Amino acid sequence: MRLDAKGFADQWISDWNRKDVGAVLSHFSDNVVFTSPRATAFLGSSRAEGKSRLNEYWTAAIQRIETIRFTLDSVMRDGNRLAILYIAEINGKKMRAVEFFVFGDDGLVREGEAMHGIEL
Fold first, then answer.
1. Which phi and psi angles does 24 have, rounded to 5°?
2. Is this structure's pTM higher than 0.85?
């Protein structure tokens, strides 16, 4: 599998800045497992298993967001693993965040995890 880490990160940031959940989800496999502490408020669990469950989480979350602006800080890659570090400004609040991804042989994300820092 060939992965353009910076290209993926740029596209991912752009998709989120447009609030385009469908475009973000296009990078994920149908059987993805995604973990985020923020998912609990929407799903009752920090773990979203499957693309449809992840869609449910992100669609509900994006409806509560008036303004969103992600700014890429850096990208780290190790084989099929990728970390995107960024500044998230959501509804006027800024925080440092990182998303971890594991890609399958098909080039789609099969595992992901979101971590959000304290407000800057």
1. -60, -45
2. yes
